[in-house]
Amino acid sequence: MIKKLIFAMSFLVAITVYGQKKNDIQAVTNGAEKLRLAMISGDKTSLESLIVPELTYGHSGGHIDDAKEFVEKLVSKKSDFLTIDITNQNIQIVGNTAIVRHHFYATTADLGKAPGDVTLDILLVWTKVKNDWKLLARQAVKSEKKK
């Protein structure tokens, strides 16, 4: 009888953990989509609601922005994304951290520059703050072709 009870409790714990992970994956997926839309719109309130103050945002060319620079560049259109398409997204939850990898394709019209196209591979690190997922870190590397 005790073995059956232990098995049943273990099964319930496993189901609960799986359900929480599934919910977290969906929440991070939603956060990544909100980030994509906020980067296109340049909406300051939306951008700030998705990041932590300690954000480190690495560009493919090596420059690193903090949270203030990240938001300011998008709001001022110094970095202006006309479109952003994301493919091959993969999300892994580890405790209160989410690791997101995806391919990033964008058309840009950065202030003072000719329009361009960007093809990148991205690593995002999200952290769970209370019940919300916030972007903690991002690193981009140039990608040779659309995947």
Characterize this entry briefly.
The chain is an alpha+beta fold and 147 residues long.
Structure description:
This protein is α+β, with helices and mostly antiparallel strands and 147 residues long. It has one domain: Nuclear Transport Factor 2, Chain: A (Roll). It has helices at residues 2-41, 44-49, 67-75, and strands spanning 51-58, 64-66, 81-94, 97-108, 116-129, 132-142. Strand 1 (51-58) and strand 2 form a beta hairpin. It starts with a helix and ends in a 5-residue tail after the last strand. Mean pLDDT is 90; it is low at 11-18.
CATH topology, anyone? Nuclear Transport Factor 2, Chain: A
> How much beta, percentage-wise?
35-45%
Number of helices: 3
Provide the helix percentage. 25-40%
Can you name the CATH architecture? Roll
Q: What is the chain-wise order of helices and strands?
A: HHEEHEEEE
Average pLDDT metric: 90
Low-confidence stretches: 11-18
Describe the strand arrangement of the main beta sheet, using strand numbers.
2-1-6-5-4-3
Structural class: alpha+beta
The best one-word shape is globular
Summed up, the domain count is: 1
| Gap from first CA to last CA | 54 Å
Number of strands: 6
Q: Major sheet: size, sense and barrel closure? A: 6 strands, mixed
Radius of gyration: 18 Å
CATH class: Alpha Beta
Keywords, separated by commas or semicolons:
single chain, 147 residues, Nuclear Transport Factor 2, Chain: A, six-stranded mixed sheet
